[in-house]
Design goal:
- The complex is a heterodimer.
- Chain A is built from three helices and no strands.
- By secondary structure, chain A is mainly alpha-helical.
- Chain A has a single domain, classed as Helix Hairpins, CATH 1.10.287.
- The N and C termini of chain A lie far apart (51 Å).
- The radius of gyration of chain B is 24 Å and the shape is extended.
- The chains are: A mainly alpha, B mainly alpha.
- Chains A and B meet through helix 1, helix 2 and helix 3 of A and helix 1, helix 2, helix 3, helix 4 and helix 5 of B.
- Chain A: It is found in: Cell membrane; Membrane.
Chain lengths: 100, 189
């Protein structure tokens, strides 16, 4: 387990997330892609912290990424609820315009 | 010992990436949710290998709960039993795949080609304690920023998800003296 290997695994997770976020039509599945991307970011940040500069306060960055994940989930579900109510749909392709 | 650790790391790495791929390959949303939860648990376990006990455990706990909530939302929105319904709802599959592979090549290439500097400093004896002290001391501003952000998220999510707000009840210019609500049974206005 070296920094290189940890970062390559993180890059793999991030790339799979990119594919999901770009290719999926259902809002919740798009959110899953975003979550996978953040999953990779967490792993990369943890690897960089441990192998380069394991100062105590570096861990705070990971807490911030986890908080960002929480915010993404909450807002994603709110948007999915709104979309479901206004369009009776959960597909991104049904929300390509800005008019209500 | 390090050989065992390396073996465990690679096992977790394969599990995390494979279950991440499975999220978009399986034919039902329930299975996709479980696959994502497995990926998060594997990453949480990798954090434990990096001695991040606290962050690793909260990643596992939070994400398992989050996936459970996600399952509820899926059933709610899709109006069907998501474990039984095959699905393939994608657009621009080839373009997305090309972009994802490109991102991986750039990121992994950077990780392998960069001459990373030597480790500076040493980890604290008790990492969880040192994280707590950092939050309450030198990095308190970060937590002070995250707290209103989370509160704003709560408010924004409620406003977005609320079926009607003050403008629906008091008119577009808020001049209606009495609200048209509260919502009653059978009232779908």
């Amino acid at each position: 387990m070296t920094l290189d290997t940890v970062l390559v695994v993180a890059a793999g997770l991030f790339s799979v997330g990119v594919y999901g976020a770009l290719s999926q039509q259902v809002v919740v599945m798009v959110m899953m892609g975003l979550e996978l991307m953040l999953n990779g970011v967490i792993l990369a940040a943890a690897g960089l912290w441990w192998f380069l500069a394991p100062a105590p306060d570096g861990q705070v960055l990971l807490l911030v990424v986890i908080a960002a994940m929480t915010v993404e989930m909450a807002m994603g579900f709110a948007v999915a609820t709104l979309l479901n109510r206004s369009r009776q749909s959960d597909m991104t392709d049904m929300a390509t315009d800005l008019s209500g | 010992m390090s050989v065992v650790l390396d073996g465990v790391f690679w096992l977790l790495a394969v599990v995390s990436v494979a279950s991440g791929i499975a999220v978009f390959r399986v034919d039902s949303m329930a299975r996709a949710t479980y696959a994502l939860a497995v990926s998060f648990v594997a990453v949480g376990a990798m954090l434990l290998l990096l001695n991040l006990e606290y962050i690793g455990v909260i990643t596992i706990l939070m994400m398992v709960m989050e996936m459970a909530i996600m399952g509820i939302f899926m059933i709610m929105f899709m109006g069907m039993n998501p474990a039984l319904m095959p699905m393939s709802m994608v657009h621009n599959k080839v373009g997305s795949l090309v972009l994802a592979v490109g991102v991986f090549v750039v990121l992994a290439g950077g990780a392998l080609l960069i001459d990373w500097p030597d480790r500076r400093g040493a980890p604290a004896g008790d990492l969880t304690r040192s994280l707590g002290e950092a939050i309450m001391g030198s990095k308190m501003l970060v937590m002070l920023t995250v707290s209103p952000l989370l509160f704003a998220t709560l408010v924004a999510a409620l406003v977005l998800a609320n079926p009607r707000g003050r403008y629906d009840r008091f008119g577009d210019d808020l001049r209606a003296g009495t609200p048209s609500g509260p919502a009653r049974e059978g009232d779908d206005s």
